[in-house]
Amino acid sequence: MKRITLLWCGLIAFFSAESQSRLSYKQVEILWDTWGVPHIYAKNDESLFYAYGWAQTRNHGDLLLHLYGQARGKGAEYWGEKYAEADRWVITNGVYERAEGWLKAQKPAFRTKLEAFAKGVNDYCAQHPDQIDPAAKAALPITAVDLLAHMQRITHFVFVAPLSRLNAALSPKGADNGSNAWAVAPQKSASGNTLLLTNPHLPWADYYLYFEAQLVSPNINAYGIARMGFPILTMAFNENAGYAQTVNTHDGQDFYELKPVDGGYAFDGRVKRFTSREHTLKIRQTDGSLKEEKMVIRHSVHGPVVSDKGGKTIAMRVVGLDQPAMFEQYWDMARAKNVTEFQAAVSRLQLPMYTLMFADNAGNIFNLFNGQVPVRSQGDWNYWSGLVRGDTSATLWTQTHPYKDLPKVLNPPTGWLQNTNEPPWTTTWPMVNKAADFPPYMAPVPNMSMRTQRSIKMLMEDDKISLDEFITYKLSTRMELADRIVDDLLVAAKKEGSPEAKEAAEVLAAWDHNTDTDSKGAFLFDRFVRLWAPGLTGLGTASSRFAKPWDYNDPVNTPSGLADPQAAVKALLTATKEVKQKYGRLDVPWGEVLRFRIGKVDLPGNGGPGPMGVFRTMTLGTPGADGTFTPAHGDTYVAAIEFSKPLKAMVLTSYGNASQPGSKHRTDQLPLLSQKKMRPVWFQRAEAEKNLQEKTVFK
């Protein structure tokens, strides 16, 4: 049987390679602009996908091959021990085997597109072997299965069901990463044109990176970004419409605690047997040899057993594993010319999560709390965020909610929509969707973080927003939390009366509450907040640290004040001592401690922590030996779009559009980021040709 299976796999690989070799790519060219962005013009879709795979590999080849290798569960086999834990997660969840099935489920025309992209990756590596790290070539050749496995690994087992949640002792569900998105209708726009903001902020490395491109064929003309290694755009706009996505408060992963009994587990009063499969994980050693590790993956009716430690046997269930058409849905979302076409695409629910924000030039704005949400018979959000009983079918969900059940807003009276990774209830204000009208497990109860309040306040306070104002608001570094508590803190510090408290109060009183490069006082306040609210966990709107709690009738100005001024001053004095000792002064400029640094480029930073209410989010990572910080994650890509005729758009990809060693496009956009500037989109071919760096023509 094993020999037959191996023969069958070999035949599949052979015919896949043969299919790729028969593909022909003609009349396609890439116009590389001066920022390293490819504008790909093709006579047919297959040629477009081929050139797109080729272009991604040129700019990110080493990273792409590493990601595809890891999606096979072979990172450790190719590159060593540090990939073993990630491989175990991929293998336990059957990622690659499922991707093989997903490829068979693709429509023939779209499968051809995926094969074309894979061939583009392979051909670039073959044509430019000196541009690819020899170690990375272990993953070659790439197939369409690798694309689907990579998509599944990143979407389902990094974002929906990350290993980190298990490693963090099954901590409550919540997004570690974030994004901002806005849509403004003509009634609120100064020009009468619809506006759209796309603004993910994720880590600046590895699979979190985005690739900026324009794709043009007879069936598409779209500009945007793709998650690294994806053969389609994942956030995009065309001349008529566009959309953004944000990480949403979505629960598509559940942990079930099983009761082991007689070699099986208890379920509905009976003993059920585990099904199991074996896998050999190979781990490359420093001497080049391979160590083999036998894995036995057990499955309950819930899913694979992902942990069997500390006396607890835990199985995991994940949504969307029977939805193989995510790439095709993204393709159609990017091509949608109006809200009707967009809704038709997203209603397929092939994306297992993400809030989607849409705008078109007909004046429509639309927000969807998108996701595969399990239909559950009991419990609220908090119940399903912990360990769930696995010994009863009463907790075993088997269906997900259809599109009609999901919270959504189309053209609200307010004229604006926003999302900052909050539950869907605050998409606009006053609320359109109310939690009481949906199942209690759909999303957390209404709340409004400081970043959400900053977002809503900027939109509410301007009756007519121009594109320039739209961009200015996006780049705002104001710290909303400071507006709420600094006055009380100053009073308490002066009352304490010590020289240290007086000096700290003077610095904070002179501070403008921004986190710009030259803002003095921002860093002292940041250090104080981390002591006052350790881990920034005490900054929720219901926090007891505030004198005045959040008020529904004053949603963007509460909570406020200090409930315990003495405790706050104690934290301030500790922060004062630490900052003085480490940096020599209290009024150290923010840009001296936050640095935008890639390779040898080292520039002053701006922006600040989202939990403190900074819309231009930059999360401070671990400080270096010199006491400076670089963003752990933060603004990665910004697109501000006005659906005028012709289209107007400004963008920035913070870390540049390439990661290959030696590329000037690894760092060329950092100066703009440091200066709080953006660059124009060259959407028309004539614009791309006017700003041409190089042309690649495939013959």
Topology:
Elements lengths: L1 H21 L5 E6 L4 E5 L2 H27 L3 H5 L4 H9 L2 H11 L2 H20 L16 H17 L2 H5 L10 E7 L10 E8 L7 E8 L2 E8 L7 E3 L3 E6 L6 E6 L1 E2 L2 E4 L2 E3 L2 E10 L5 E10 L5 E5 L2 E7 L7 H10 L3 H8 L8 E6 L4 E5 L11 H4 L2 E3 L18 E3 L5 E4 L30 H11 L6 H8 L5 H17 L2 H12 L11 H11 L13 E3 L11 E3 L2 H19 L6 H4 L1 E4 L2 E4 L13 E3 L10 E5 L1 E6 L5 E6 L16 H5 L4 E2 L4 H6 L1 E7 L1
Parallel strand pairs: 2-5, 9-19
Antiparallel strand pairs: 1-2, 1-31, 3-4, 3-21, 4-27, 4-28, 5-6, 6-7, 7-8, 8-17, 9-16, 10-11, 11-12, 13-14, 15-16, 17-18, 18-20, 22-23, 24-25, 26-27, 28-29, 29-30
What are the key terms here?
699 residues; alpha+beta; Penicillin Amidohydrolase, domain 1; Penicillin G acylase, beta-roll domain; Penicillin amidase (Acylase) alpha subunit, N-terminal domain; eight-stranded antiparallel sheet; 33% helix; 23% strand; disordered N terminus
- The secondary-structure class comes to alpha+beta
Mean pLDDT: 93
Q: What's the overall geometry?
A: globular
CATH superfamily of the domain at 2-27 and 42-167: Penicillin Amidohydrolase, domain 1
Order of strands, main sheet, comes to 20-18-17-8-7-6-5-2-1-31
Distance between the termini: 45 Å
CATH topology heading of the domain at 2-27 and 42-167: Penicillin Amidohydrolase, domain 1
The radius of gyration is 26 Å
Largest sheet: 10 strands, mixed
Q: Quick one: CATH class of the domain at 2-27 and 42-167?
A: Mainly Alpha
Using the 3D structure, state the CATH architecture of the domain at 2-27 and 42-167.
Orthogonal Bundle
In percent terms, what proportion of residues is strand?
Answer: 15-25%
What's the total helix number?
20
- Poorly predicted ranges: 1-22, 169-175
Care to count the β-strands? 31
Question: Could you estimate the helical fraction of the residues in percent?
Answer: 25-40%
